[in-house]
Amino acid sequence: MNAQLARARAFLTSDLQSDRVVPPSGFTARLTVFSAAAMAFLAVFALALSFAAGRLADRWSDALAQSATIRVSAPEDQQERQVQAVLAVLETTPGIASARELPADETQALLAPWFGPDLPIETLPIPALIEVVEEGTGFDPEGLRLRLQAEAPGAVLDDHDRWRRPLVAAAGRMRLVAVASLVLIGAATAAMITLAAQAALAANGQVIRVLRLVGAHDRYIAQAFVRRFTLRAAGGAAAGTALAALMLALVPSVETGSFLTGLGFQGGEWLWLPLLPVLGGAVALAATRAAALRALKGLM
Amino acid sequence: MIELENVSYGYGGGELLTEMSLKLAPGSFHFLTGPSGAGKTTFLKLLYAELLPSAGRVTVFDQSVRGLGRDEIAELRRRIGVVHQDCQFLDHLSVAENVALPLLVADRPIDTRELVELLGWVGLKGQMDALPPELSGGERQRAALARAVIMGPDVILADEPTGNVDWEMSQRLLHLLVELNRMGKTVVIATHDMNLIRSAKAQVAARVLRIKGRRLHLAGADL
Lengths: 300, 223
Ligand SMILES: Nc1ncnc2c1ncn2[C@@H]1O[C@H](COP(=O)(O)OP(=O)(O)OP(=O)(O)O)[C@@H](O)[C@H]1O
Ligand SMILES: [Mg+2]
What we know:
A: alpha+beta; 2 domains; 10 helices; binds magnesium ion
């Protein structure tokens, strides 16, 4: 562990002398910094999308899983009897914390947005609504449906599953898209850095030849390139990450639970951001090392 | 120290060097001559493993070159100082840095005093901080010689080390190589310069190898 730490420190601070054996290359350097920054910028948004989609999926499944509604619409003379039957059934159903019939004023409040506050619901054949609160474990909707059918044919169980499932699935897919984007961004970064490293290696063919002739190990020669590209990529990624984070932090956050305003990081999620420059550096390290060793192989 | 057994080499066309056998004993001093294009540089490249023989066997420090890994070849080159005909410098580093380059890549400490002394020996004290492209042909060759000896190698291979320097300077460089040979180093010098060979023969027991008609000959005492 200590030896590794020492190696890492040597890698970062390695005497400037040995770094100078490869001449500075302004163009590929700027190119690498820029692509790393751009990629990190995109990665921040992909990451934010992934978190937001995850939060949305959680919220939908949590909020909706905890409650269900039973609608009872029977001929007027049977309505009250069936409601009582449903409540009796619910009392003996495992997984249900409580159930209550919505009183008329609450039903009216529910309908008010559509029909106005003065709807005379007593005179209308409005179905009775029973609100069911589940226990954490949830109940078995199919079993409940069968029992309701026997006891109260006018009762319909709406466990919100019907419309919850596609929403949760959509959020899940969105998250998948975000994760796939992250993977692609990583791969594209590796590809760009490989190209930049190859350009630098080709431009420095004579330097590499001379180093080899005076007895440098492949490791030493590769290191001179790897160090540069790693530090450039990490630096660029840090800048891109910081810029994107700043922009996300400036997006007005409204507690409406809307997807757009939820796009960002919350709490511990911010801790993922410092990982991006590290990952960018790691990708550059692997890509440059591979390119350098490949280039060296053709040289005695 | 270095041994060739039936070594042949060709660049892809026909064979350039055919069935060459040779033993370089430790502490020996050899000249390598032959017409331009005969393959002297190629021959030296076989000795420090920049080229592998197409047939036969090159053994350096008791190891067959063909079986060496890349790191082992690097180690081998640290023990063989080479003056390349085309010098091979890093043009963005100063002369002093170029001369010290073998120490740098081998991660060995650089003794500045010794470095300056060596540069003084080859008459480059004043050009220490110059870049190689700013040097004259002869100055470059002198810098190349300094770089070849800085690691204290067991073998020194010099490809036309005196091609571009005046007689006085070539005598001085020869003297440096003779001194190193007296310290036990094995020396091979490729050259066209017969006067240089004669002058060396007065100082050491030098043998003369000649590449002619793709073969290696040991020249007679007529030189
Ligand atoms: N990399 C190469 N690829 C193909 N042919 C080469 C290569 N290097 C040298 N040759 C050819 O091999 C022959 C020998 O070249 P070499 O450099 O060994 O000659 P030399 O004896 O050192 O000549 P000089 O005295 O002019 O330095 C030449 O005809 C040259 O054209
Ligand atoms: Mg030559």
